[in-house]
Amino acid sequence: MISVRAICVFLAIVTVGLADDVADYRKGESVYDFTVKDIQGNSVPLSKYKGHVLLIVNVASNCGLTEKNYEQLNQLYEKYGESQGLRILAFPSDQFNHQEPGTNEEIAEFAKKHNVKFDMFSKIEVNGENADPFYKYLKYKQPGNVENDDSIEWNFAKFIVDKDGQVVERHIPKKDPLDLIPSLEKYF
């Protein structure tokens, strides 16, 4: 039988570990402090994007906003990717009405069919206890519009990161990517 002391020690270790996990994202000084997984599951240190303006978007294949957003994100990349160094990072998430039910392989195939020119990453959670630490960091740096809640509202919420890796703006899902041009141009 397990002793009460053993249970207490175990709970203390777990609690300290959880506290460290929750606090880790707050220790980041910039997005460059994070490593994420690309759509193939490879680790990608975000420091590879140093010196670039980033547009970070949570995406879903089966959302009513998908077609327009993918088209406009491609247009932004074509206009500013080479000339200004814009990088667009898309993170699939299935947290909104299960509009991204596919596997990473299926999501990659969908992106290929839509001629996606921007970088696709592995499917993650963007809200809740299991939210990816990188998304916790984004929301910590640019909280949402709802009082006391930094949650991502829906698919295609957008974050702008400047060339120094600082999260400088957050935009609602219904804001079209092309409407971000004045904001993006401030940071090139």
Automatic annotation (TrEMBL):
Q: Which residues form the signal peptide?
A: 1-19
Boundaries of each Thioredoxin domain copy?
25-188
GO molecular function, one example?
Answer: peroxidase activity
Q: Is Signal found in the keyword set? A: yes
Q: Name one GO biological process term.
A: response to oxidative stress
Statement: the UniProt record of this protein carries the keyword Signal: yes
**Coiled coil where?**
none
Keywords of this protein's UniProt record, alphabetized? Oxidoreductase, Peroxidase, Signal
Give the top-rank taxon of the lineage listed in the UniProt record for this protein: Eukaryota
**Cited Gene3D superfamilies:** Glutaredoxin (3.40.30.10)
**PANTHER family linked:** GLUTATHIONE PEROXIDASE, PHOSPHOLIPID HYDROPEROXIDE GLUTATHIONE PEROXIDASE
Q: Which family does it belong to?
A: Belongs to the glutathione peroxidase family.
Q: What is this protein's name?
A: Glutathione peroxidase
In which organism is this protein found?
Sitophilus oryzae (Rice weevil)
Q: What is the lineage of its organism?
A: Eukaryota, Metazoa, Ecdysozoa, Arthropoda, Hexapoda
Per UniProt, what is the name of the gene that codes for the protein in this document? LOC115874705
